[in-house]
Write a structure and sequence with these properties.
The chain is 40% helix and 23% strand. It is an alpha/beta fold. The strands form 2 sheets. It has a 9-stranded mixed beta sheet, sandwiched between helices. Strands 6-7 form a two-stranded antiparallel ribbon. The radius of gyration is 17 Å and the shape is globular. It starts with a strand and ends with a helix. The structure holds 3-hydroxy-5-(hydroxymethyl)-2-methylisonicotinaldehyde. 3-hydroxy-5-(hydroxymethyl)-2-methylisonicotinaldehyde binds at residues 9, 11, 16-17, 40, 43-45, 79, 108, 116, 210-211, 213-214.
Length: 275
């Protein structure tokens, strides 16, 4: 069985990071191990959230894993939050990168033109260091602009987004996937592997929920580790994320602090199993 290590926070309530990566990647048939880099009472969109940095403990965990000679087919890095945790991520990669494993980096730090509470632009340089050694990076449009030192815009043409992907690739990553892309009143993602662009667009709902990026990157990683192509992985991740958004949008009594990914898992399985 393929093994992924998911390196991100535990937001105890909030349906993001580890609490969505675990069920989604497990559902896709890969072992999901976790390196929880911090623990928060909720994700940072709530007021007065608590935050405990766990990087000291993570260095001890890494030491033990090295002694046990564990290896990972895919290293998935999500929300980090600060430079200390980014240093931990860089150290993890140095210790566990092999010739064959895949590094997927979601530079989760901002959305809709704004950085998440508690994050500052001081993380950008280390974020770029991770981009340099990643196989795939998955920024949204705000994160793309931040990584490139450009002003964020409300509206982009597809050509402009393809150019952003091309510039992001120059950071060193082998592949780029940009999410939150609108085209003809649909919503989707554009991927770039240095040669070709791959995209998929699905129904757009007039709503925005926390955790959609995490649901997307989890299903993208679950696809890539099973040998799917970038094009196939983008299709699975956009379709699954859209289904999560649809279920959340249509359930008037559901939570709005994260998406209803749980009831979309049977659909994800169908996507994974179909050829
Ligand atoms: O979904 C991204 C994310 C992950 N982790 C924490 C967050 C957020 C987004 O706000 O606050 C703690």
């Amino acid at each position: 069985m393929k093994r992924i290590v998911s390196i991100q926070d535990i937001s105890c309530i909030g349906k993001c990071s580890e609490t969505v990566a675990l069920p989604i990647i497990s559902c896709m048939g890969a072992e999901t191990t976790i390196l929880p880099t911090s623990i928060l009472s909720t994700h940072t969109a709530f007021k007065n959230f608590t935050f405990k940095n766990l990087s000291d403990e993570c260095y001890k965990i890494i030491k033990h894993w090295k002694e046990e000679k564990f290896e990972f087919d895919l290293i998935y890095i999500g929300y980090t939050g600060n430079n200390e945790i980014l240093d931990l991520v860089l150290y993890f990669i140095k210790e566990f990168k092999t010739k064959n494993n895949i590094i997927v980096f979601d530079p989760a730090m901002a959305d809709h033109g704004k950085m998440y509470a508690g994050i500052t632009t001081s993380v950008l340089e280390k974020m770029k260091e991770v981009c340099k050694i990643a196989d795939y990076i998955k920024p949204n449009l705000t994160e793309s602009a931040l990584l490139l030192g450009k002003e964020y815009k409300e509206n982009y043409t597809i050509e402009e987004i393809e150019n952003l992907a091309k510039e992001l690739k120059k950071l060193g990553t082998k592949n780029v996937v940009i999410t939150g892309v609108e085209k003809e009143n649909k919503m989707g993602a554009i991927g770039y592997d240095g040669e070709k662009y791959y995209s998929n667009f699905e129904t757009k709902y007039n709503a925005s929920y926390h955790g959609t990026g995490d649901v997307f990157t989890s299903s993208l990683s679950g696809s890539l580790v099973q040998g799917k192509t970038l094009e196939e992985a983008i299709k699975i991740a956009t379709k699954f994320t859209t289904e999560c958004v649809r279920l959340t949008y249509e359930d008037i009594n559901g939570t709005k602090y994260g998406v209803n990914f749980e009831e979309a898992l049977p659909y994800l399985l169908k996507l994974v199993l179909q050829k």
